[in-house]
Specification:
10 strands; two-stranded antiparallel ribbon; six-stranded antiparallel β-sheet
């Protein structure tokens, strides 16, 4: 059984702190909410991510209102992308994402069911990572306009490993379920 990194608490061997050297990871994080005060949940989740030690804001998308994909009948989502540099390696970043969801009362009752807050890691350093319940890039990102439209908004030159430029992937995709929203995230100070 593997232990945890003494520096960041990662569940696996921590490449960020391995051998005493520190690495920075460029991470693309997707936020979604379709229950309660959706904007407050999104903003709270983004604020919690940016309050994570060793995490620096790079960019964010506008907010989009999106139709649910799969699962039961449910309300529309608000979705956004935030890009950060972080000292957290992928496994520790996943732990942080789950902690943020739990802090905002995310209940994992029904697969693809409604939720107060969903925090997904889409891409990290344009690299591949597959360990336990974490696959990067996100295994369904290339099929989800509600992820790719905001990502392209935050980074017009974005590329999704294994699929090419996000703009090219989107050019063949139905985007009718993704609409601009008047809601907006605060710009970090």
């Amino acid at each position: 059984m593997r232990g945890r990194c003494a520096t960041c608490g990662s569940r696996s061997r921590c490449d960020a702190h391995f051998g005493g050297r520190l690495m920075t990871y460029r991470a693309v994080i997707a936020f979604g909410s379709n229950l309660g005060d959706r904007l407050a949940y999104l903003q709270g989740g983004v604020d919690a991510l940016l309050d994570t030690p060793g995490t620096t804001y790079i960019a964010q998308s506008a907010i989009y209102e999106t139709d649910p994909v799969g699962g039961p009948e449910q309300p529309a989502f608000l979705n956004a992308i935030v890009i950060v540099d972080t000292m957290l390696p992928p496994a520790a970043l996943l732990d942080r994402a789950h902690a943020i969801e739990e802090a905002f009362e995310r209940a994992r009752i029904e697969h693809w069911g409604p939720r107060t807050l969903d925090v997904d890691i889409i891409s990290v350093n344009d690299e591949q990572f597959d360990e336990g319940d974490l696959t990067i890039p996100h295994k369904s990102a290339h099929e989800r306009a509600f992820v790719l439209v905001p990502w392209l908004d935050a980074d017009p030159d974005a590329e999704l490993m294994g699929h090419g430029k996000v703009a090219d992937v989107l050019s063949t995709m139905d985007r009718s379920g993704v609409r601009s929203s008047e809601a907006a995230l605060r710009e970090p100070a």
